[in-house]
Amino acid sequence: MRTRNLTFALALLPLAFVSGCRKQTAGAKADPLLAAYDSEPDWADSTKIVPLGYQEAQGKRIFYQYCVWCHADSTPAGPSNRSNLKPVPPLLNDGATLNTESDEYLQNIITLGGSAMGKSAMMPPYGRTLSAGEIRSVIAFTRAIAQPPYQPPGRPGSQYSAK
Amino acid sequence: MSAEEMGKVTNRTRFVFAVSSLIFLAVLAISPLKDYGREWKQYKRSYLRFAQGRPDTKRLTADYSPNIDQIWLPGMNVVDRCTTCHQGITQATLGDKSVPQPFRAHPPIPHNVRDWGCTICHRGQGPATEVAEAHESTLAWEQPALPTHFIQASCGTCHLADLPQTPQLTKGRQVLAELNCQGCHKMQGIERPAMLGPDLSSVGTKVSREWIYKWLKEPRTIVDKDGNVTVNGVETEEEPRMPKFRLTETELRALSGYLSLQKAKPITPYKIPPGVVAAWSKNPELISQGELRFRQMFCSTCHSLAVTRAGETKLIGGDIGPELTKVGSKVNSDWLVTWLRDPESYLPHTRMPRYGWSDEDLYKVSQYITTKLVDSDLLTNIPKLDPPADEEVQLGRRLFTEKGCASCHVIEGLNPQKDFGPDLTALGGKNASELEFGAAKIQHNLVSYIQAKLQDPVSVNPAARMPQYDWNQADLDAVTAALLSMKGAPPTSALQNLVVPRKDTAFHPTGSFAEVYERYKCYTCHKFNGYGGDLAPDLTYEGSRAQRQWIVEFLKNPQTLRPTLILRMPQLNMSDKDASTLADYLSMVMQHPAVNPAALDTKQFTPAMASLGKQLYEVKYQCQSCHTIGSSGGYVGPNLNNAGAWLTPAWIEAWLKNPQALVPDSIEPRRNFTDEEIKALTAYLMTLRAGIKPQKTASISGARSSAQGAGR
Q1: pLDDT band at residue B203, thresholds of 50, 70 and 90?
Q2: Are B152 and B481 in contact (CB under 8 A)?
Q3: On chain B, which terminus has fewer CB atoms closer than 10 Å, C or N?
């Protein structure tokens, strides 16, 4: 009798091990805004909020300090300078114009200014004012708010990857 | 026991041993299996599979080891095994959003993860190797990972000085200070200013008991059920500074009675000379002239008014002083005239300048305020209140300290209770078990607690004395981040050394300058060596920037220099003596160490240089995209029509070399000018002169539109 109990107990032992094994945790309900560093209302539709990561949020900050005056229709101080300029600078969310330009091109035109890239000299160079990282973050912000949305180009395939 | 029986027992024992050895074998087999299936090992393997599908497999797997990865920083109490699963955080190619978590790269931030670990900023349980244990609040570890939305709080734990990268945190600290939270709570990095709420020692000379009753019952701000905030019936984004206290009828009567008797400094009414009154009182232009002067003096730089344009009513104007739409029905008219003439006689710490009034202007403007800025319905729903009985006054006096009024408002002879609200210096590091959630149906964690307490203090603690504030979501989140950042003194000395303190920004001028500076309250809007408001230009280097004669003329007759800037310098009606005292001090003392206007010889600029400069300005660099000369050009930079009389050539040269060296957050880009180009541009700008003509057409609309979403 005692032996049977003992056997039984021993047989249960692995079960005890196994039972402690997997803890099922409810998947965290991800609120996209709680997971974002900052956010920006969609320029065309203010009820839509675009969540921004750290880099995009830094871009937003720099945009609202340096670029908003000419690349938006209204500015923190009221009227925009955009209407004074010819050619008219694109709005920052103008996907139709900016989505076709590569990150490298945008990096260059911000760093070197319009005249260096064959565009209007009214776009000044910011390469000595902003760091390369800051300019990259402005581009990331541009991409985040673009309308129509920006699609990154396909990743170039590696020559070593298996066919 | 017989031998046979012995054999039986042995056989049975053998059987038991055989079975149990099999079971132990099975158990032994399970444990490596179980070990193989551990959560972190699964992530390790899936990272390998993921990396093999990428073109740069070699680089992605260079540091790969199948074991637990750990960042150990003994001095900072960091044992972080987060990189065991988050294996791609330092891989630049894994930055974009298509990379699945937990493998995505960390965005580039100023701190290297190898030197800082993860939990210093993100919180959570560093040594844990299971997803739930590491990120969530468990019985053994109550600090869950911080939602990324509030992550700026972690920057603020060490960076007590404001950083440009953390706008939410900076905003939160500002809102805490603006709402006078430091009146009742001790908080990290927020000092108690000289004045929180207005001094009420003589409030009885200013307003009636009925008005006090109404204000206490419903501070002119009302929030409807959708959370829209209205001030005097006009919608606004601003948070009202005076919160709503939950007062009973008896308490309202007692407090209003007590306050209406506060007349420590009786007013001596200023008699406007009868000649002025006689000349103007019958004039039909009186009120419109008063309104014109009110505008011309730029009262709206600090005070807002409800203005209806195209059917839409908006509050327009600044928020340094109170909103004034119905002030004529609020204050006693004798008080108003005395206040306008000398605000400091009523409120010693006021930020309102003492204008140099002429009797005529004073009469016109005060008549405008008392006839036009009124609302006859203001006190309609308020009961008629008689002079208070003694018991009411006694109760009111007691309530004034008990309700915490005395923590923000001064009344002579009354001391505030010490430490009225809880100390919040270490709130941000509290565990959920240290907080009281009461009957509130919210998640039991610090973030939910802070937000619930801010939105409705009695929801978590029915006995809370904290008044009711009205928040918009952005401000609520900003304040939450600021409170989460306050984790008290760092636990280790290594961390202690990392704290970046706030800069001490005292500016104590002396002598005759100080007298004029105090009289006109220059620091309400301007900064001097880091001290002062940020509404108007920083004057720390004004002596290097502007010519002395220009400063004098500007002070006598301010005009706008920047077409996009709407807020403007008030017309202070300064005397010649005051203007030259200020100009002397500014041009002698407020100098940039590297820019000395006196050291530059202006004779070197030739007409040939100037014409080259003009060409550079107009063609090569197209400065007109941002600056206006004549009547054409952009709105971004200052108007340069009068540059030759305004700026010093030394400043222009230094500015063109590197604007950010002089004004660190200037938006003018630093260009690659040659020295010759700089000389030519300076020569050209020095030729630009225009008589100082006051421009009085600037509108004040949109002064309150914030940077947020301004692109819309």
Answers
A1: very high
A2: yes
A3: N
Per residue in A54-69, pLDDT tens? 999 999 999 999 999 9
Residue B331 and residue B341: Cα distance in Å, rounded? Answer: 15
Closest residue to B131, CB basis, from A25, A38, A122: A25
Owner of token pair 């998947």:
A27
Cα(B23)–Cα(A12) distance, rounded to whole angstroms? 9
Cβ of B711 and A68 within 8 Å?
A: yes
Q: Which of A11, A18, A156 sits opposite B30 (nearest CB)?
A: A18
Q: Give me the residue spans of the domains in chain B.
A: 1-36, 39-145, 158-188+424-496, 203-372, 511-686
Is this prediction's pTM over 0.80?
A: yes
Condensed to tens digits (0 to 9), the pLDDT of residues B78-87 reads 899 999 999 9
- Residues B228, B166: contact at Cβ < 8 Å? no
According to the CATH classification, is domain B203-372 in 1.10.3720.10? Answer: no
In angstroms, the first-to-last Cα distance of chain B is 100
Assigned token pair, B3: 């031998």
pLDDT tier at B689, thresholds 50, 70, 90: confident
Report ipTM (2 d.p.).
Answer: 0.82
> Tens digit of pLDDT for each residue in A81-103?
888 888 899 999 998 999 999 99
User: B110 — contact with chain A (CB < 8 Å)?
Assistant: no
3-class SS of residue A41: strand
* Residue B255 · residue B399 · CB < 8 Å: yes
CB-based contact, B695 to chain A, within 8 Å: no
Beta-bridge mates of residue B237: none
Spatial CB neighbours of A1, under 8 Å, sequence gap ≥ 6: none
Distance to chain B for A18, nearest Cα, Å? 8
pLDDT at B567 over 60: no
B701 inside 8 A of chain A by CB: yes
CB B706 within 8 A of CB B322: no
B31 touches chain A (CB under 8 A): yes
B244's tokens: 């709503």
- In the CATH hierarchy, which fold is given to the domain comprising B511-686? Cytochrome Bc1 Complex; Chain D, domain 2 (1.10.760)
The CATH classification of domain A57-145, taken from the options 3.40.630.10, 3.40.50.720, 1.10.760.10, 1.10.150.290: 1.10.760.10
